[in-house]
Each structure stands twice: as structure tokens, then as C-alpha cells.
Amino acid sequence: MSVWICLEDNLALQAPLVPSPSENPITPGITVRAVVLGIAIVVFINLWATYAETVVKSSRLNLSFFQITLLAVFIVMVGLINPALKLVSRSLVFSQSELLAIVAIGMVGCVVPTSGVTGFLIGVISTPFYFATPENGWAEFYHPHLASWMVPTDLDAIRGFYEGLPPGAPIPWMVWVIPLTWWASLVVAVLGISASVMVILRKQWVESERLVYPIAAVPIEMSADAMSNRLFPAFMRNRLFWVAAVFPFGIFVWHSLSWAYPLLPSVGVLPHGGYFQFTRYSPGLYIQPMQFLTIGFAYFANTQVLFSIWFFFLLHVIEGDIFNRFGYQIQTSTDSFSADPPTEAWQCFGALGALVVWRLWVARQHLKDVFLKAIYANHPVDDQDEVLSYRTAVLMLLICFCYALFWLHQTGMDWGTALVFAAGVGIIYIGIARIVSEAGVVYSGATVTPQAFAMDLRGTYGMSGASMTALTLSYSLIDYMRGLFTPGLAQAIKLGDLIGGNRRMLLACVAVGVLAGLASSIFLILYMGHTYGAYNFPRFPFFSGDPKGVFESSLVLMRAPKGPDVERMVFFGIGAGLMGLLTFLRYRFSWWPIHPIGLTISAADNTASLVMPVFIAWACKAIIMRVGGVNLYRQSKPVFFGLLVGYTAGVVWCFVVDMFWWPGQGHSVHWW
């Protein structure tokens, strides 16, 4: 029975809501206007997200893999701009290829602001001098290993950024230019590595393993009939869509009215309805039945994958309850970003590492062909459908990886630590990209940082002060362990399959978008900081809490070095062993119903917020597939498009209300 359900589920995922070919003629690929508009949208969203968190102090808008700001712009283009262009002239209408190119540029470029790159980057490099005091000893332990090309060292300029400049005082831009330029070069190298790896793995994931890419499926289906004769896209011509869209939007409108009229009862489930613990000893979960963004994207994933996420979270709750009742627990991590408790965090990270190693082993023949094609141009493997040739991808991977290692070594990190750190980064980047491409979760993250992985695996006894300082600075690219660019690049490269013509321009355009977003976001943060004082950004924890915490935790290990942490390694091995066993059972027995992917993120901090909407999406889809099969699944798609559109419109509505009526006192209605 489970085999039939899985087969039916896969058939449903391959059944898009698209018009007939005659209604959607083939159009050229990437165009100049699409590239210009895509980069302009990236700049706009970088400024929007930064402004929302620094000035308006409203919701955090770029924590999801398909940023809600980008989704809002895409909905406007598909539902308003394209229909308006059809009324003017059909030659002006954006084709599906153009729309998908814009989304691809945006999904990577919109990672940059606030929680992606710029928030942590500026926060971390500005912290060691501003927060140094005679009592904390930072000047003794950190400052001798910090050069002016790595961090700004002018204390007066840094103080002006955190506390604001006097009226009329010029902003000291040059203090920031040199270190930020060098850090930008590392960001570009990381982008190059990520793009190369995703290009190399695309054929294996798409054609051999047939991952469904649920997040990419949403813009693909929404834009499927962009060039049809109908005024509005197919999903908007369905009554179920409008009913579903009005529901979440109405909740947000009501919720915003309660801010001005306290007698109106507010909707307490936005962003969550509280923290619930099954027992006093167990980990808890956030009550989020109305996180329609997660529900909408998760609906397009395989039901076995969705079941795996909430099933393993329940096992995580049971395991945590047992450990707490018996009083067994490893010492809580001093790392500010690794999940707690360490037992289950390292167990999940071991499972994630095993997942990455196993998927690379499965792809070994493909990887061999890729490298042979890079060496021998006449090798029979075809790379014509890739957005980069295999030779270019492999060469870019090697150059960027070597530069990144050299860059880290120049900051003071020894070669052994740099390699272990790079291995931890690789597990997170490839693993999270795989999870997002298979599970369709719009939020996800690893449970252990690469910094903690290096320090606990090697121990800090053998690490010099320069190595520890360099490891601490590397938190500049922590990105809450969401994989930084790789999840977005995986979706963008998948979208490239539907972009005809000159698709090999795509990654170059994506890179320009990232650089444009980086420049615009950095400019606005520095301007706002020097104008209003970055320490006054309470919704922006990168200048008050997170960076300060990582310097404090690293200093503990510098003052009291330790050897390799055997207990953490044991649980890492347990997680890897469990992943191996579950993978064997899934491949060996066709009736085995449990997908192992949920084990990798069951203890992640954001899974407590993710699990309830994923359960709702799983229950809805399982019932729909059981009752009506593929046909009912296709007929139900407009409902979930409506939830996505209504939720997105509601978040934007609340931002606009905050911007005009509650500036500086905004309300958080959208989080994890």
C-alpha cells in the first residue's frame, strides 16, 4: 500500500496546473529587461528588509528560503503587472522565462540583507573594538590578532556607528571600505563555490533522483500561462483561490486594527500562539496553526517527507524528555548559535553529515563523469543543459575553494582548523540545500555551527589565539546555519531548466544581483547606524547580542582550552549511524514508510516553529490524495496558492501600517 501511495504522490507532484501548449507559446530565455528588473528588485528588497528591521522595527522579512518580500513582488508581477501589460500590448508581456529569471536572481540576491550576510558581517567585525573593556580582556586576547584589513580599528568611527554621529558630522566611509572589500571577496568566493557545487549536482538531483523542488514549483506553476490569451493566470481564475486568500489576509487586517483599537481582540496566533511543552521535562513547540507560508510551500512536497519531519520531531521530544528525567546531559554549548541540548544537536548534525556523504556516494559515477568532462572535452557526458559547463564549474570550484582557504589562513586560522571548518560548512551548505529541494520546508537550519564543529572535533588546546580569533570572525557568514546561498542557488538552477535560449547567462546575472544587494544593504546599514545609532536597533540583534555573544563564548575556550569533546563525537556518530540504518531500510524494503530526512533537523531551533504547519500540510495532502487522488490534488492547488498570496499580502499590509502609523514601534507578525 505504501508503494502505491508514494507512486501516486510522485505522479501528483509531476502534474502541474498549466494550460495547453497552444495557450503558452515558446518565448526567448533571459532578456535584458528581465536582468535589469531582477537586479533592481534585489536592490529594492535589500533596502526594504534593512529598512523594515532598522527603522520600522517590524517583522523580519528574509528568514525564509523564498523570501516573503520576493514572493510579494512576484505576485504583483504575475497578478497585476502582466495583466495590465496584456491590455496595453501583448508584446510587452513578461514571458515565463523572464519571470523565472527574475525569481532566480531574486532568490539568491535577497539572501544578502540583515540575517543573511550584512547584519552578521558588519556586527561581527565592528564588535571586538567597541565592546572591549578592561574587565572582559578582549584587548589582550583578540586585538593582537586583528588587522585593519580584517576589521575597522578606528574606535571613534566605530563609536559613531553604534551611537550615532553628531549633527553635520560626515560619515567615515573609508574606515569601512577596506575591511568590507576584503570580506566581500570572501562572499564572492563562497558564492562561486556554492554555485559550482549546485551546478555539478543538478543532473543527479533532478534527473537521476528526481527531487521535486517544491519551493521552485510555486513560481513555475504561478507563471505557467504568463503568455496565454487569458487576462489573469489560471490559479487566480479559481474561486477557491480567492476564498483561501481572503482568510489569512483578513486575519492580518483584523490583527492590525487591534493595535489602534485595543478593545478589538487581537489574534494571538500571529506569529505564534505560545510555547507548548508536552511534559515539564520535554522540549516544546510553538503553536503556529496559521503559518500559511510554510503550509503553502510544504503542500507541494512528498507526503512521506512531510511525515518524516513531524514524526522525528516527536521522537526528539521523547528523547529529550527521557534524557532530562534521568538527568543526563552534555554540558550546554557555549556556542551562541548551535542548538541545545547538545546531545540531540550533535545527533542531528551527525545525521546531516551522513546524509551528505551518502548522497555524494550515490552520485559517485556522475561526479566522476563531471570531472572527466572538465578534463577531456570529448568525454561523452552532455552538459549542454547546464547553466555552466562542467569545465567552468569545476575550475571555478577549485579556484574559489583555494582562495577561501587562503583567505581564512591569512586571518590567522591554521590549515588544519581551516579544513575542518570547511568540512562543517560543506555539510551545512549541501545538506540544507538538499533538504529544501526535497522537503519544501521554507525554513530550516543545521543544529551545530562549523565553528563548534571545528573546536569540538579538534579541541582548542592546539589552537593558537590567532586561530581562535579567526574562527570567531568567521561568524560573519553564519546565516543562522541556513546554508547561505546554496538553497537559493539550487532553486535558481532548477528554474534554469525552464528558461530557454541563453540560460548560461543566469549565474552571471545572479552574481551581479548578489553584489548589488550587498552594496545597497551595507550602504543603508552604515548610513542608518551613523544617523540613528546601530545600538538602537532592538529588532536587529547583530549590534547588541549575537556578535557580542560569540566573542564572549570563544574567550571562555581561549582562557580554558579543552581537548576534543568525546561525548559530542559519540552523539555525532550515533546520528550518522541512525541515518545509515534508516537509509538502508528505505532502500532495502519497499514497504518501509519512514523517510530519514526528518532526523537531520528534528532538534533545530526553528523546527519547533516549523513542525505544526508541516503537520497541517501533511494531513491535508494525505487526506486529499487518499480521497481523490491526483485529480483532487490538482484541483486543490489554487487553495494553497491562495494561502500563500493571502499570507504574503497580510504581512505586507502590516508592514505598511507599521511604516505609516507605528514607525520605530513596529509589530512582528512574521518570524520563523
Order of neighbouring strands in the sheet with most strands: 1-2
Task: Classify the beta-strand content into a percent band.
Answer: under 5%
Unreliable parts: 1-8, 14-26
Helical percent range?
55-70%
In whole angstroms, how far apart are the ends? 35 Å
Domain count: the total is 1
Query: Helix count, per DSSP?
Result: 23
Q: Would you spell out the secondary-structure blueprint of this structure?
A:
Blueprint: H1 2-13, H2 32-56, H3 68-88, H4 96-109, H5 118-130, H6 138-141, H7 155-163, H8 173-208, H9 214-222, H10 239-260, E1 275-277, E2 284-286, H11 292-298, H12 303-326, H13 342-362, H14 364-375, H15 390-410, H16 415-439, H17 450-458, H18 465-473, H19 486-496, H20 506-532, H21 546-559, H22 566-588, H23 607-661
Antiparallel strand pairs: 1-2
Labels describing this entry:
2 strands, mainly alpha, 672 residues, globular, two-stranded antiparallel sheet, 23 helices, disordered N terminus
